[in-house]
Design brief:
The protein is built from seven helices and three strands; from the N terminus they run H-E-H-H-H-H-E-E-H-H. It has helices at residues 2-21, 41-51, 55-60, 67-82, 90-100, 120-124, 132-150; strands at 28-29, 105-110, 114-119. The protein has a three-stranded mixed sheet with strand order 1-2-3. A hairpin with a 3-residue loop joins strand 2 and strand 3. The longest helix is centred in the first third of the chain and has 20 residues, at 2-21. It is globular. 28% of the residues are buried.
């Protein structure tokens, strides 16, 4: 009986770990999630877009149904605007303002076991309890600096 309970425990944990390591969490923001410290699908996607200077595609993500993509797009676009590489259109400014006030929730993760929810407003205003908002901004700045060095 105790072997059956042990086996059940192992299978449950393997299922949890596997769920974290797949791209199943496509609407989660995290830079080092699960036991291997992998970035989430949205972070990987944003890395690809920034590396290839696909800024128009990032701008389209402002209107995505995926809330995590929208948040990351806001931060990238703000950094590009502040560095003088981009000028926002009126509709983009309006969308960004709305997101700064949004109470919608998005999943965040960090490390092997931490998964939580944060509001879009809190993440964008850097007042989330988990510090993911600050991590997003630092990550975007580093990615844009790497891309600038390459070009």
């Amino acid at each position: 009986m105790k072997y059956q309970i042990g086996l059940l425990f192992v299978l449950i944990n393997l299922g949890f770990i596997n769920a974290q390591t797949t791209d199943y969490f496509s609407e989660t923001i995290g830079f080092s999630c699960s036991f291997v410290g992998k970035p989430t699908y949205v972070v990987k996607k944003m890395h690809q877009y920034i590396s290839a200077s696909r800024y128009d595609e990032i701008g389209q993500l402002l209107y995505s149904h995926n809330t995590a993509e929208r948040i990351m797009a806001v931060i990238v676009y703000e950094e590009l605007m502040f560095s003088g590489k981009l000028t926002l259109r009126r509709d983009q400014k309006k969308t960004i303002r709305e997101l700064y006030r949004s109470e919608s929730k998005v999943s965040v993760c960090s490390g092997c076991t931490f998964f939580g929810l944060a509001t879009v407003k809190d993440l964008l205003n850097n007042i989330d309890t988990y510090g993911i908002g600050r991590k997003m901004r630092l990550w975007v700045k580093r990615e844009l600096m790497k891309q600038a060095v390459i070009n």
